[in-house]
Amino acid sequence: MELTLLGTGAPEGLPRPDCPCAVCAAARGGAVRAATSLLVDGVLLLDLTPGAALAAARAGRTLAGVRQVLLSHPHEGPAMELPPGLPAAGRVADGRVLTLLSGHRVRAVPMDAPGTGYEVVSPDGERLLYLPPGGAPAGLDAERVRSEPYDLVAADVVGRPDAVARLRVAGVVGPSTEVLAVHLDHGVPQGAELARRLAAAGARAVPDGTALVVGAYRPVPQVPRRTLVTGGARSGKSLEAERRLAAFPGVVYVATGGGRDGDAEWAERVRAHRERRPASWRTEETCDLVPLLAQDGPPLLVDCLSLWLTDAMDRVGAWDDAAWEGGGEKALRARTAELVDAVRATRRTVVAVTNEVGSSVVPATASVRRYRDELGRLNAAFAAECEHLLLVVAGQALVLRG
């Protein structure tokens, strides 16, 4: 089955008309994307968009052989002119199966938002799933999906990463499934930043006009198994860490800060973090990280190491000079080494968050200087065991390793 992506952008395209944002202003040349439209084997067109015939011609294809045009989402604005010879565009009722004269079978997949997804099976058995913008499959039970993974999934990975997570839970996105990001909008800068975010979800983007053979072997982006995200206060590091696992199900969110009775500001921070997380994630409030790292299971998101260190220093009395010199330093180093060893040995996917506190003024007290120094040592030791290292500055992630 040959798939030609006539467009890969959001319904309004990229750049959006009359949008002054930085992403749209920089969307020039290869970064320009027409509204998403997929041509399957020259006989099936998924989403009719303005300029589809010209886009097909630029890609070396023609729409002359198209026998079915299906829409995946409501199309707003003025009616589009139907290219000569094309059948009328329409949508299919959820669950209905169409069999084309070419031998392709198309099944309409219900969504949790306005729109319809389409499962396409070629005469030779290759399987493609196409999802509408802003949509995720609704009710992925045994009656609605097949047990074997799709060969290729084209979805709104940036806008709805949880859609990919649901497909992974259902077993229809597997290690060999190629995940393509479509319906790309101005929420993420194009180029290296887009590629980095998609790779974290095991996905990739391709330029308009790209033709692919569905089912042919292509390397799937490798998701880093251990990642450390560091940065200053309110830099966006927690949000960056959450993005890296948003397309994976059952994530265990390890909150090392716990609760603080009577602290309204802390309660508000906790609430904001919880509201950002997918409903399928589970929260563990603990600083006992070593047992979690030793277990097999879903990915871990640890937020954060700086609060873990605060707890560890509390336990060994490290804030008191006499206790520090009387064995506290040795005990803390042993506890830190145990954590680093656990990270080295873990088989789980881990994303950890920490703070950079060594770039400001020198603290006035010995105990705070001690904390600053120990956090720097912990960050360096933890980072040495991670394949991927990010520094977040002003909401922008800079790749230091990986």
Write the layout of secondary structure elements.
Elements lengths: L1 E6 L14 H5 L10 E4 L3 E3 L5 H7 L9 E3 L26 E3 L5 E6 L5 E6 L5 E4 L21 E4 L5 H9 L8 E4 L10 H9 L2 E2 L6 E3 L12 E6 L5 H9 L6 E4 L8 H13 L5 E4 L3 H6 L5 E4 L1 H12 L4 H25 L4 E4 L12 H18 L4 E6 L2 E6 L1
Parallel strand pairs: 3-4, 8-9, 9-10, 10-11, 13-17, 13-18, 14-15, 14-16, 16-17
Antiparallel strand pairs: 1-2, 1-12, 2-3, 5-6, 6-7, 7-8, 18-19
Helix pairs in contact: 8-9, 8-10, 9-10
Give an overview in words.
The protein is α/β, with parallel strands linked by helices and 402 residues long. It is built from ten helices and 19 strands. The protein has helices at residues 22-26, 52-58, 161-169, 192-200, 237-245, 264-276, 289-294, 305-316, 321-345, 366-383; strands at residues 2-7, 37-40, 44-46, 68-70, 97-99, 105-110, 116-121, 127-130, 152-155, 178-181, 203-204, 211-213, 226-231, 252-255, 282-285, 300-303, 350-353, 388-393, 396-401. The strands form three sheets. Strands 5-6-7-8-9-10-11 form a seven-stranded mixed beta sheet. β5 and β6 (105-110) form a beta hairpin. α8 (305-316) crosses α9 and α9 (321-345) runs parallel beside α10 (366-383). It is elongated. It starts with a strand and ends with a strand.
Keyphrases for this structure?
402 residues; alpha/beta; 7-stranded mixed β-sheet; 10 helices; 28% helix
Measured distance between first and last alpha carbons: 34 Å
Shape: elongated
Task: Please trace the helix and strand order, writing H or E for each element.
Answer: EHEEHEEEEEEHEHEEEHEHEHEHHEHEE
The tally of beta strands, per DSSP, is: 19
The share of residues in extended strands comes to 15-25%
Tell me the strand order in the biggest sheet.
5-6-7-8-9-10-11
Helix content: 25-40%
Give start-end ranges of low-pLDDT stretches. Answer: none
* Category from helices, strands and their pairing: alpha/beta
Count of runs of 4 or more consecutive helical residues: 10
Biggest sheet descriptor:
7 strands, mixed
Mean pLDDT across all residues, rounded?
90
Instruction: Work out the radius of gyration.
Output: 25 Å
